[in-house]
Specification:
heterodimer; A: 6-stranded mixed sheet; globular; B: mainly beta; 4-stranded antiparallel sheet
Chain lengths: 115, 115
């Protein structure tokens, strides 16, 4: 069964510190992997999208890595800010090809940045 | 939230009543989607539409109905047949009917509470 699992479920860090969120998936084959940021009560906003052939993608203080061999991805946040407090969702697109694909969403990691 | 609007932000209904959630986009996207988000679960696809006047069931379509009469509009009706309708509903759109390579842009969501 295609699954996307994220860890930890929740995380508390101090402002200015770095943190790394993990995403493990069993989807095979897959087209791409995305990371979204979702503020409480809002819709998700895309941070990065990587194809299966990419290893890393950055967006400001956010850097995503992908290891397609081990089926793992991580999202590293540098010099955290209070506004980084949100849920971070890993999403994998199955690469069936041809037919419409359906995104597989992880349950998210809830990050709280404290002053 | 890009050019996607959802209304209302909060919606309260009595059990047994049908309710329609609005989703409008001005991004000229072909494809539109409805997701449901529940605590501790990843987003789940309810319905999607790749083109006007056409839509397909997602993973949890039972108790829901949609229409796609205009490119910019994709309303979702939660019927009384939906056994557990209280949830956060997210609408999304993408430039193409195949989401594997295109970004999905999410609206701000509607929180529906049925008592």
């Amino acid at each position: 069964k295609n699954q996307v699992e994220q860890s930890p479920q929740s995380l508390i860090i101090l402002e200015g510190k770095n943190c790394t969120l993990q995403c493990n998936y069993t989807v095979s084959p897959f087209s791409n992997l995305r990371w979204y940021k979702q503020d409480t009560g809002r819709g998700p906003v895309s941070l990065t999208i990587m194809t299966f052939s990419e290893n890393t993608k950055s967006n400001g203080r956010y850097t995503a890595t992908l290891d397609a061999d081990t089926k793992q991805s991580s999202l590293h946040i540098t010099a955290s800010q209070l506004s980084d407090s949100a849920s971070y969702i890993c999403v994998v697109t199955p690469g069936y090809g041809g037919a419409t694909n359906k995104l597989i969403f992880g349950t998210g990691t809830l990050l709280a940045v404290q002053p | 939230d890009g050019g996607i609007t959802q209304s209302p932000k909060y919606l309260f209904r009595k059990e047994g009543q049908n309710v329609t959630l609005s989703c409008e986009q001005n991004l000229n996207h072909d494809a539109m989607y409805w997701y449901r988000q529940d605590p501790g679960q990843g987003l789940r696809l309810i319905y999607y539409s790749q083109i006007v006047n056409d839509f397909q069931k997602g993973d949890i379509a039972e108790g829901y109905s949609v229409s796609r009469e205009k490119k910019e509009s994709f309303p979702l009706t939660v019927t009384s047949a939906q056994k557990n309708p209280t949830a956060f509903y997210l609408c999304a759109s993408s430039p193409s009917g195949t989401p594997s390579s295109y970004e999905q842009y999410f609206g701000p969501g509607t929180r529906l509470t049925v008592t």
